[in-house]
């Protein structure tokens, strides 16, 4: 009797376990996003289907490479999501997409909707292959705003990672920023005429530069480089003086002064006029102690 009773109890508990088991399995699968797949284009877009059973859901996504989270977590109420394509440097098959869902009430319309009364997050669902699915391919028009660049080229890039107009920089002329007196090289800059990328070269062979200014000594004038101060030997020449101008006449007691100016460099040379002595005159001249006349 006792034996029969315990057997009955065992059967009863077994029935309960068997009865509960399918319900538990169903609960684990329920609430999980279905059929996660990569979109045909753009390459960083994933799509998925809602958990079975209807209702409104908010989704959380993350993109992993191995165990490292590359992008996300991102939240959405759509059933597609664009990961940051520029972070995806490898083939997308190498990445793992994980999405989980929670029931919620969505208020308002895309893109101004918001979520209230969120439930508990379900389990993470992972991407398994691609293709198929009930969801429509979401529209995506590439938008290529502004230039991106690196040291050698420029391009435009959509948020999905698609690149356009990729080409090498289109550099203008080198322009001097300054002459480095320590290295004796010109430090120059040039800009890409398309994207504005600035390239600097600190070791451009120095190009002499001359202004209108001349340097001068007592007999010659020359030009020096504005930056390195080196004398340009091709410009060294004797002054080209104009006529003497008497700036102070000599008297019989004091020396006078005269000057002349180089028409090229404007160097002015000054010389004294000796004290006047009347013995330079011939007999036609008359004179007294201070003056002479004819
Ligand atoms: Zn795009
Ligand atoms: Zn450029
Ligand atoms: Zn120079
Ligand atoms: Zn001169
Ligand atoms: Zn005289």
TrEMBL record:
Keywords: Signal
Keyword Signal attributed: yes
Signal peptide: 1-27
This protein's name: Fibronectin type-III domain-containing protein
């Amino acid at each position: 009797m006792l034996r029969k009773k315990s057997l009955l109890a065992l059967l009863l508990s077994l029935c309960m376990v068997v009865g509960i088991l399918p319900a538990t399995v169903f609960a684990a699968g329920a609430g999980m996003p279905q059929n996660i797949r990569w979109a045909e284009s753009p390459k960083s877009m994933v799509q998925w289907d809602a958990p079975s059973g209807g209702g409104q859901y908010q989704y959380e996504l993350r993109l992993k490479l191995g165990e490292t989270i590359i992008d996300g977590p991102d939240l959405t109420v759509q059933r597609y999501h664009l990961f940051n394509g520029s972070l995806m440097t490898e083939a997308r098959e190498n990445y793992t997409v994980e999405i989980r869902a929670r029931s919620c009430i969505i208020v308002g319309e895309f893109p101004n909707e918001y979520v209230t009364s969120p439930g508990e997050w379900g389990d993470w669902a992972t991407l398994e292959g691609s293709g198929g699915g009930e969801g429509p391919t979401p529209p995506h028009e590439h938008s290529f705003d502004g230039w991106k660049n690196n040291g050698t080229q420029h391009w435009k890039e959509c948020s999905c990672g698609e690149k356009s107009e990729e080409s090498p920089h289109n550099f203008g002329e080198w322009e001097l920023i300054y002459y480095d007196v320590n290295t004796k090289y010109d430090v120059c800059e040039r800009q890409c005429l398309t994207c504005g990328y600035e390239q600097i070269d600190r070791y451009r062979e120095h190009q002499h530069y001359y202004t209108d200014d001349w340097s001068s000594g007592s007999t010659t004038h020359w030009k020096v480089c504005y930056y390195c101060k080196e004398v340009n030997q091709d410009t060294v020449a004797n002054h080209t003086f104009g006529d003497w101008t008497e700036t102070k006449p000599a008297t019989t007691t004091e020396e006078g002064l005269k000057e002349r100016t180089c028409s090229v460099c404007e160097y002015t040379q000054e010389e004294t006029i000796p004290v006047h002595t009347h013995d330079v005159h011939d007999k036609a001249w008359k004179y007294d102690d201070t003056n002479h006349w004819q």
